[in-house]
Amino acid sequence: MRADDLAKILARPGGQHDLILQPGDELVVPEYVPTVRVEGAVNAPTSVLFVEGADLKYYIGNAGGYARNADKGRVSVRYANGSAKVKGRFLFFTSTPQPGPGSLVTVPQEPEAEPLNVTQLLGSVAQILVSAVAIVAIAR
Fold first, then answer.
1. pLDDT tens digits, residue range 26-36?
2. Contacts 24+ apart (CB under 8 A), 81-85
3. Out of 3.10.310.10, 3.100.10.10, 3.40.50.620, 3.10.560.10, which CATH number does the structure's domain 3-107 have?
4. Could you say which DSSP state residue 66 is in?
5. pTM for the complete prediction?
């Protein structure tokens, strides 16, 4: 739950956003962390001081920018409350999560492409050619 969610709940007791607490329930307010941690496929993983209104580019830029092997399309933000959002793209639209104080920005690496095995490829092509020649010979 974010701070603005708590404000909605307190503004309208009994409303749709209100929480119902049972005996033994606890409300835990974590310590305020004024930084955003950036890790993964960036040039200099670090913690960056939170700046109100700063976007994802700002925090990744302060971590040295994307590394060569970064998967820029799958960047995720884990918020201090435990929820997460992933950078997404649909047709012409993109959604970019906005980091908050105490967030963790993770830039994954692109999966490495397997190198082409020329010997295996030539062996497969030779098998196909031999099979084709055998079929033609049997057909005659």
1. 877 778 889 99
2. 81/1, 81/2
3. 3.10.560.10
4. B
5. 0.63
